[in-house]
Amino acid sequence: MSKPTSKTLIGGFVVGAVVLAIVGVVIFGSGKFFTKKQEYVLFFDDSIKGLNIGAPVMFQGVKIGSVTDIKVTLDPKDLSMWTPVYIEIEPRRIATLGEDVHVSRMRDLIERLRPKERVAKFVERGLRAQLQMQSLVTGKLFVAFLFRPEAPVKLKGFEKKYLEIPTIQTAMQEMAERIEKLPIEEILNKVLAAVDGIEKVVNSPEVEKTIGSLNQTLEDIQKLIRNVDHQVGPLASGIEKTLGDTRKLVQNVNNQVAPLSSSIKETVGDYGKLARDVHGQVPPLVSSIEKTLETTRGALEQSKGTLAVAESNLGEDSPLLVELDNALREVGAAARSIRLLTDYLKRHPEALLKGKGSSGGK
Fold first, then answer.
1. Do 289 and 342 contact (CB within 8 A), yes or no?
2. In the chain, what are the domain boundaries?
3. What confidence tens digit (pLDDT) does each residue in 174-220 have?
4. d(CA 16, CA 23)
5. How far apart, in whole angstroms, are the C-alpha atoms of residue 196 and residue 78?
6. Which one is predicted more confidently, 311 or 193?
């Protein structure tokens, strides 16, 4: 007969299983079942293709929640259809004190967003939801919370059970709307007109003539280049020959510089010696000239006396008297010339070597 099973043992196994289940939920669920969450609804005007259930809800790159459900809602009044997106936010994922001011705003909002007045208050501050690209490869989207006070508030009001947060268009949608607002037709007309103008200019006879002239100019330039190429060789040879002759000339000049310099020095020395000799002979020469001048003056005075006697003995029209008068005048002019020469040599004794210059009479 088998031994009866112990009820205590069975109860212990049951309690242990329950404890293990609780521990597993806490560990593997990361406290998910015990986390306080808040749910909201979003209505996007854009296509939500790429947004899946479980997609993250981000704020400044930090995940604060996820998408819980996506539905298609029919409005019986006008038969319009909408796709509400339901999200849940985990307040514990919001940053604590000391973080960025926008994060602090979001934390305050998430923790106390039950009253509609609170929602309206933070919406007024600029709280908006926007679809953004999660991956360019997969095309998946996620919901981003951000503050855009300049964006208008658009609420559908279809869902009464959940608080609604306004949304804004994606960057691509905003760009598409801007492109739609552009005067595309006007721009195309201007582009076509510009193309027509360019075509007329390109096909005009003036352009053809210009192109022909350019071709002829290019041909002339090519001919000139070929001629220059043909002349480069002889020209280079001539330049080399000229350089060689120049080197020889410079060498010859260098060889003649030393003898020429010596000759110049000797000539300058001889000239200096001659100048000193001449300068030494000038005073005696001047004295001799002065003596000659005094003698001439004495002779002139005697001639004047003789002329007076002759005038008393001869007639005024006597040829002898006329010739004597002319002779006396020439002697006087010679005496004046000798006097001027003497004065000049006193001032410029170097005139005996150089001659009388342009300033000699001064």
1. yes
2. 31-169, 208-354
3. 777 677 778 888 888 889 888 888 887 777 788 778 888 888 888 88
4. 10
5. 50
6. 193
Decide if 159 contacts 83 (C-beta within 8 A).
no
CA dihedral angle for residue 67, residue 69, residue 74, residue 77, rounded to 10 degrees: -60
- pLDDT of 66 above 50: yes
Q: How far apart are CA 69 and CA 57, in angstroms?
A: 13
Q: Which residues pair with 143 in a beta bridge?
A: 57, 131
Q: Three-class SS string for the chain?
A: CCCCCCHHHHHHHHHHHHHHHHHHHHHHCCCHHHCCCEEEEEECCCCCCCCCCCCEEEECCEEEEEEEEECCEEECCCCEEECEEEEEECHHHCCCCCCCHHHHHHHHHHHCCCCHHHHHHHHHHCEEEEEEECCCCCCCEEEEEEECCCCCCCCCCCCCCCEECCECCCHHHHHHHHHHHCCHHHHHHHHHHHHHHHHHHHCCHHHHHHHHHHHHHHHHHHHHHHHHHHHHHHHHHHHHHHHHHHHHHHHHHHHHHHHHHHHHHHHHHHHHHHHHHHHHHHHHHHHHHHHHHHHHHHHHHHHHHHHHHHHHHCCCCCHHHHHHHHHHHHHHHHHHHHHHHHHHHHHCCCHHHHCCCCCCCC
On the CB side of 299, how many CA atoms lie within 13 Å of its CA? 14
Is the entire prediction scored with pTM above 0.85? no
Cα–Cα distance for residue pair 134/56, rounded to 1 Å: 9
% pLDDT > 70, the chain? 68
d(CA 250, CA 248): 5
Closest CA to 37 of 89, 113, 86, 111: 89
Mean pLDDT, residues 289-304 taken together: 69
- Whether 122 and 138 have beta carbons less than 8 Å apart is answered as no
pLDDT in tens, 69-124: 999 888 788 888 889 999 998 877 665 444 555 555 655 555 554 546 666 787 88
Token code pair at residue 160: 């009464």
- pLDDT per position as a tens digit, 149-171: 998 888 888 888 888 899 998 87
Would you say the C-alpha torsion 32, 38, 41, 44 has a positive or negative sign?
negative
